[in-house]
Q: What sequence folds into this?
């Protein structure tokens, strides 16, 4: 059984801190739609779990992807870090603040399929969300 930090409630992504404990949270899995239980005990970190032991392999990754997409829709800027090319000591470009006014989710760009494109006029920043442990 996977411990999940996010679930869906009333068509909104919620964290474990935003809901009451147990089934009364009224939450479902972001990936498979199964009922979730808000576990808020004293021994383990608070988390959501699939009700009656049901489990899906994509709940955590889906939850993180959806939460980060919501984050970027709510914001309108991101600091782009410096870029260093292989074995170069000088940055190809320095960090800068990219301000955007549009967010496109999971668009095709030629043969690329980024998770997000942040746009300001003709400028675009493609983002891929990587979930690893």
A:
């Amino acid at each position: 059984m996977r411990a999940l930090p996010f679930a869906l409630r009333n068509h909104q992504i919620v964290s474990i801190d935003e809901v009451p404990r147990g089934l009364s949270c009224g939450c479902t899995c972001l990936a498979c739609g199964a009922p979730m239980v808000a576990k808020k005990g004293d021994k383990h970190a608070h988390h959501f779990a699939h009700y009656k032991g049901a489990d899906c392999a994509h709940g955590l990754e889906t939850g993180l992807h959806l939460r980060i997409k919501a984050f970027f829709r709510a914001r309108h800027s991101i600091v782009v870090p410096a870029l260093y090319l292989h074995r170069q000591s000088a940055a190809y470009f320095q960090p800068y603040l990219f301000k955007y006014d549009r967010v496109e989710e999971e668009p095709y760009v030629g043969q690329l399929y980024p998770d997000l494109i942040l746009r300001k006029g003709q400028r675009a920043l493609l983002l891929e969300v990587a979930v690893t442990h």
